[in-house]
Amino acid sequence: MRREEREAAFADFVATRQSHLRRVAYGVCRDHHQAEDLLQTALVKLYVAWPRVRSADAEAYTRRIIVRAHLDELRRPHRRRERAGLDGHDRAEPAGPAYEDRSALRDALRSLPEQQRKVVVLRHWLGLSVRETAQDLGISEGTVKGYSSRALERLQAALESSGS
Fold first, then answer.
1. Helix (H) or strand (E) holding 19
2. What sequence ranges are listed for the domain RNA polymerase sigma-70 region (predicted)?
3. Of 138, 141, 135, whose CA–CA distance to 57 is shortest?
4. How far apart are CA 52 and CA 49, in angstroms?
């Protein structure tokens, strides 16, 4: 495939899947700004690897980049993490939850431990198989099943208590 064709294929992939991948990134990190950063990191890495990535595998490859980039950020010492440029000059986030966070389900998802939330997002929101979820998170299939089971029980209890 010629360079122009590869770049056109990459541009088509980004145009069609970008908003979905942004939602994936938000589901992983629960922060809109960090989700944008994760998505940009993933797309840069995907662009570099694009000649080697089959188009059928591109979305799974990008999801793995998003998850791994988030894990890398969590492992980075706090003093070395990026911070907003000017303290006191950035607009404060509006009080109360954002529109996307208002539903009872999203509140219940936020209450889950991080790994359980990631399993629920990948497994049930995105519809990945147990094997794909395990590969994306770098854990065993049995761990995915256990996290999923416990997370669904917690979500059901939270939704019942909220009256949803």
1. helix 3-29
2. 16-78
3. 135
4. 6
Question: What's the token pair of residue 133?
Answer: 């979820």
Burial of 14 (0-12, 13-18, 19+ CB in 10 A): middle
Q: How far apart are CA 144 and CA 116, in angstroms?
A: 8
Predicted confidence pLDDT, tens digits, the chain (164 residues):
688 888 889 999 999 999 999 999 999 998 899 999 999 999 999 999 998 887 778 999 999 999 999 988 888 776 555 555 555 555 555 555 444 445 777 778 888 999 999 999 899 888 889 999 999 999 999 999 999 999 999 988 887 777 65
Place of tokens 């969590």: 74
Determine the Cα–Cα distance for residues 51 and 39; give it in Å rounded to an integer: 19
